[in-house]
Amino acid sequence: MIIVNLMGGLGNQMFQYASAKHLAMLHDTVLRTDSFNFRKMTLNKEHVFQLNCFRITAPQAREEEIRKLKPAESRLGRIRRAVSRLFGPHGSRTKGGLVYLEPDGSEFKPGFFELGPDRYLIGYFNSYKYFSPIRDLLIEEFTPRDISEKGRELTKLIESTNSVGVHFRRGDYVTDPDVHKSVAGVITEEYYRNATECMLSRIEDPHFFIFSNDMPWVKEHFKVTARVTYVDINPPNKGYEDLWMMSRCRHNIVAGGSTFSWWAAWLNQNPGKIVLRTERISNDPWYNHPEDYFPPEWGVAAS
After folding, report:
1. What are the helix (H) ranges across the chain?
2. In angstroms, rounded to a whole number, what is the distance separating the alpha carbons of residues 297 and 141?
3. pLDDT tens sequence across 50-90
4. pTM of the model
5. Strands 162-168 and 251-253, how do they pair?
6. Helices and strands: H and E segment counts in the chain
7. CB atoms < 10 A from the CB of 81, how many?
């Protein structure tokens, strides 16, 4: 049995689930999720658990199933786990190696596939290399269970035009000093200008659909000589619907290292899609691994 701990925003929840799903399939074993400690382990308190709004097939693990793979630890055990995480090649292990704690840094860790069929996974696993072989299955499972009437109407418009989904992430990228420091100069207004100009030059009669958690700022700063629709119909706890609508656009402009817009672009099934992304993900070298994060066919727009 594979059990994956869920934490962070919706995009991170999807990375965690997708990676665990592939590992479980490789071992022909069952997958369970664990969201019991979601609030405690999610640093950004604006993020809410939304993964179950998709048609995922893995149920929540029972407490007794979790205890078999992740027993309660003593203080000494927690210290040993922290040391193992820093120096061990395959993360922290307890009780015969049944807990895998992803080592620091967002680069792809090939050792992930060496894990056995009974594991409790803790990490973000922010690389398409963990699950790209099961993309068709993930497209099915990351389909919303339900879409609002307004969402359905807007999706029809998106699918009937030469749509370009554009994601602006603000929030903690601006208000949290540590987060802002890590992305300053990575995602800029110049990046969005260059990306939209590229789309205008390559696509006939584009229609830009704008998604953001700070729409007033975007309306003031995003100017383009084309049709624009500002998608502002959902509260934060229905972000999954916005992600789905972005994935129905024919083309995408993603917001740097935002896993939210990453998934929208990756789930986009248009065979001729153009996806534009930033050159870097972060100013932190531990987390700046664009070669593992972005699929190679996505284009780069200068920041």
Report:
1. 10-26, 38-41, 63-69, 75-87, 135-141, 149-160, 172-175, 177-183, 189-202, 215-221, 239-247, 259-267, 290-293
2. 24
3. 999 999 999 999 999 999 999 876 444 554 455 454 444 44
4. 0.92
5. parallel
6. 13, 10
7. 19
